Structure formats: C-alpha cells, structure tokens
Task: structure prediction
Amino acid sequence: QVLLVESGGGLVQPGGSLRLSCAASGFTLDYYAIAWFRQAPGKEREGVSCISGYDGSTYYADSVKGRFTISRDSNTVYLQMNSLKPEDTAVYYCATGRIPGVSLDDYEFDYWGQGTQVTVSS
Result:
C-alpha cells in the first residue's frame, strides 16, 4: 500500500525558512517521481517542485525557483523553503506517480499525502 506522510509545516515569519518532509512507504522511489503541490484558500492547486526517481533531476515552478530546494534521501523527499513570503501560505501536499522524469501536472500523480499547513505571516 502506497502511503505518503508530510510533516514540517508551521507558522513562520516572512523571510524565514521551513523544511517539509514527505515519508514514502509501500513502494520504492527509484521508479517514481515525487512532487510538492500547494493550495491556498480560494486558489487552484499549484505545482511547486518535482524530483525524478530515475535520475534525481529536479524541476521548480518559477514562483519558487531560487528559494526552494527539493531533495531525496532514501524514501523521504524534502522541500527546503527559504526566503518565505506571505504568498507561500498554503497547504502543501506531496504526491507520487510512475513518471519517467519530472512533472508538475497533477493528473499524472496517483497517490497523495494528507497535506501540511504552511503559514507565512508576521
């Protein structure tokens, strides 16, 4: 059974940092891409970043490029978020799918975590 569990969300001031974790079980990441999505109240879900299980290549949305870093250690994927802005406030989800590369198209991802809240506010 595929299971994704996110953690690490919280309240942080603008300019601060958080590291989100996505612990995966029930499958091996070697054949799956894992991505982070986010959804703010009243807005559509947005792809944030993705890492390939095949070659470790990464991809970022323009809105987070240079501030967020995705990485992988065994069956856990991390999202290091620096220089956070109020507009980064959202529920962050990790998702996985058997994708031979990277993607931020949510329809390609079959399994989703329950989400973790990130709030950036002073």
About this structure: Residues 13 and 122 are 5 Å apart (CA to CA).
